């Protein structure tokens, strides 16, 4: 696996363990010689995952629309900046650059990215795995709702299991590596 895309909040959230998980994940990705693809922000969960990967001598690629440079506090120290024109281009480039996706705690932007990658997998647009990193129960309610969707007949069991769930950065990385498809060239 050459590159992993991490989706996460532009804010840090109220619980230190969520931010600590972002740091642990950035460190673990870099330690394995895998490049980090993320939203390019310098603060919150995004800043934490990027700072940690850079501190561990990892390569970090930030994919961010030009009009969000200021609002999302573009990270000044990343290895490579990929400036794009909008959100759809951002998600498309993140998807094509990466071999898999991990979602840390975040807000509606993170949800949008998580579900877009999952629905693209369901539609056969890509075959890259996604892992939901459920730190300290942040995503318990979402996981319960996904199970409810399955019980209600709106989500097929084989689709439900496509979204893997892990409870630590190391487990998320391990799960993603096990589910890996051959790396991209791009
Ligand atoms: P949030 O989880 O709301 O803090 O947002 C996390 C990241 O998702 C931020 O970088 C947002 O700019 C980004 N984001 C929000 N909406 C979208 C979207 N429709 N497509 C791609 N990225 C988005």
Provide a descriptive summary of the structure in words.
This protein is an alpha/beta fold. The chain is built from seven helices and seven strands. The chain has helices at residues 16-31, 44-55, 87-97, 108-122, 140-151, 157-160, 169-178, and strands spanning 3-7, 35-38, 60-65, 80-84, 101-103, 130-133, 163-166. A seven-stranded parallel sheet has the order 4-3-2-1-5-6-7, with helices on both faces. Strand 1 (3-7), helix 1 (16-31) and strand 2 form a beta-alpha-beta unit. Helix 1 (16-31) packs parallel to helix 2 (44-55) and helix 1 packs across helix 7 (169-178). The longest helix has 16 residues, at 16-31. The mean pLDDT is 95.
What are the salient characteristics of this protein?
7 helices; alpha/beta; 43% helix; 186 residues; binds adenosine monophosphate
Could you give a quick summary of the protein structure above?
Helix content is 43%, strand content 17%. By secondary structure, it is an alpha/beta fold.
Based on secondary structure, the structural category is: alpha/beta
Number of helices: 7
Q: Summarize the biggest pleated sheet.
A: 7 strands, parallel
Q: State the order of secondary-structure elements, H for helix, E for strand.
A: EHEHEEHEHEHHEH
**On the 0-100 scale, what is the average pLDDT?**
95
Number of strands: 7
The molecules bound to the chains, other than polymers, are: adenosine monophosphate
Strand order of the largest sheet: 4-3-2-1-5-6-7
- Strand composition percent: 15-25%
As a percent range, the share of helical residues equals 40-55%
Poorly predicted parts: none
Instruction: Calculate the terminal CA-CA distance, rounded to whole Å.
Output: 13 Å
Q: Please tell me what the overall shape is.
A: globular
Gyration radius (Cα, Å) is: 15 Å
């Amino acid at each position: 696996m050459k590159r992993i895309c991490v989706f996460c909040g532009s804010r840090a959230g109220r619980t230190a363990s969520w931010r600590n998980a972002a740091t642990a994940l950035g460190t673990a990705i870099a330690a394995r010689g895998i490049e980090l693809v993320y939203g390019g922000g310098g603060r919150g969960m995004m800043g934490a995952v990027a700072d940690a990967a850079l501190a561990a001598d990892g390569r970090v690629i930030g994919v961010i629309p030009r009009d969000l440079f200021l609002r999302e506090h573009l990270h000044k120290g990343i290895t490579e900046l990929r400036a794009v024109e909008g959100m759809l281009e951002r998600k498309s480039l993140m998807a094509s650059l990466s071999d898999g996706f991990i979602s840390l705690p975040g807000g509606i932007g993170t949800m949008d990215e998580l579900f877009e990658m999952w629905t693209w997998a369901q539609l056969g647009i890509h075959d890259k795995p996604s892992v939901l990193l459920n730190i300290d129960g942040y995503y318990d309610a979402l996981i319960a709702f996904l199970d409810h969707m399955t019980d209600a007949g709106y989500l097929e069991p084989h689709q439900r299991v496509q979204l893997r769930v892990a409870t630590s950065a190391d487990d998320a990385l391990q799960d993603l590596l096990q589910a890996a498809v051959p790396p991209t060239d791009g």
